[in-house]
Amino acid sequence: MTQRLALLVTGARGQLGSAVAEQARAAGHSVTVVGSAELDVTDADAVEDAVATLHGGARAVVINCAAHTAVDAAETDVAAAAAVNEDGPANLAAACARHGVQLVHVSTDYVFAGDATVPYEPGDATAPRSVYGRTKLAGERAVLAALPGAHVVRTAWVYGRHGSNFVSTMVRLEREHATVRVVDDQRGSPTWTADLAAGLVELAGRADLPGGVLHATNSGSTTWYEFARAVFTEVGADPGRVQPCGTAEFPRPAPRPQYSVLSGAAWTAAGLTPLRPWREALHQAMSLGGFGPTQSGVHPAAP
Ligand SMILES: NC(=O)c1ccc[n+]([C@@H]2O[C@H](COP(=O)([O-])OP(=O)(O)OC[C@H]3O[C@@H](n4cnc5c(N)ncnc54)[C@H](OP(=O)(O)O)[C@@H]3O)[C@@H](O)[C@H]2O)c1
């Protein structure tokens, strides 16, 4: 480690935040971990206090993993989504600007329309199709307006040991059903929280990089159907039990991008470590267990 940082991780009880806290501690940084109960990012005064007291002699960085991630619910609860995804990051960026603190803010592939055929670069035109995507884009803009040196990192298809995600859902469905139908007409890059978290901590340590938007996902791309087959394979189940279907079969309140592969070229060009291929990451993530009772053959409730 080159320099010990004073890190504040917000949204630290979420699937990404908890991984960031773990990676930051493992890297030897001084880490303050706050969930929504300890720091509500929509509370500007509370954010100001938390950021103002962060330094303690070290270079200080906030990694914002707090978000309103209920994509479908956001369609009807716009105010709640905007408060956390736009006002929250705006509060953090303003406080960071006042106190000379760096900010790494996490955003999403949903800022794009999803109709591309080649991976999205950070500078490509955004056109979110959901409330979640629109509020996240507004959050990105608020961050960079208040703190141009901030880093906005878009990611996608995130899964980790903590919380509910596609992998934990597939592990459960494999136990409960003979077959499952999974959409095969949406393409993206599954991203393991541990790999992304390591990248965010690495980025936090880079005082030399200009601010702006970067993309970070595990590399390569797949469809949800192929991703589900890989999860079945990892738990020793027959991937033939996963059947492909189309998005139209599962109508959801919020439209999903059909293609949301994010190019990691800018990330790599910045000298940051590229994230490994998604299939390798999934294998390692699942070999560590924690996604459900079938993992390692040990039920979490077992003595
Ligand atoms: N999940 C994905 O597939 C995905 C894809 C692309 C981008 N992202 C982005 O990645 C980041 C992390 O997402 P995640 O998957 O880790 O989501 P998550 O598991 O839902 O975690 C989000 C966290 O934000 C916290 N939070 C909500 N409202 C808050 C508030 N007002 N103040 C402070 N904290 C608040 C929640 O805390 P409580 O539970 O305590 O309320 C929750 O722990 C987000 O920026 C998200 O937009 C995620």
Could you give a quick summary of the protein structure above?
With 303 residues, this protein is of the alpha/beta class. Helix content is 37%, strand content 16%.
Give an account of the 3D structure.
- This protein has 10 helices and 12 strands.
- By secondary structure, it is an alpha/beta fold.
- It has a domain at 5-164 and 189-221 and 259-276: 3-Layer(aba) Sandwich (Rossmann fold), CATH 3.40.50.
- Helix 1 links the parallel strand 1 and strand 2 (30-34).
- Helix 4 (78-99) packs parallel to helix 5.
- It is globular and about 55 Å long.
- The site of NADP nicotinamide-adenine-dinucleotide phosphate (NAP) has 29 residues, from helix 1, helix 4 and strand 4.
User: What is the correct CATH architecture of the domain at 5-164 and 189-221 and 259-276?
Assistant: 3-Layer(aba) Sandwich
How do the SSEs run, as a string of H and E? EHEHEHHEHEEHEEEHEEHEHH
Please, how many helices? 10
The name of the CATH superfamily of the domain at 5-164 and 189-221 and 259-276 reads NAD(P)-binding Rossmann-like Domain
Question: Structural class, judged by helices and strands?
Answer: alpha/beta
Mean pLDDT: 94
Give the topology, please.
Blueprint: E1 5-10, H1 15-26, E2 30-34, H2 44-52, E3 59-64, H3 71-74, H4 78-99, E4 102-108, H5 131-146, E5 151-155, E6 158-159, H6 166-176, E7 180-183, E8 187-188, E9 191-192, H7 193-204, E10 212-215, E11 222-223, H8 224-234, E12 242-245, H9 265-269, H10 278-287
Parallel strand pairs: 1-2, 1-3, 3-4, 4-5, 5-10, 6-9, 7-12
Antiparallel strand pairs: 8-11
NADP nicotinamide-adenine-dinucleotide phosphate binds at residues 10-11, 13-17, 35-36, 39-42, 65-69, 84, 88, 106, 108-109, 136, 155-158, 163.
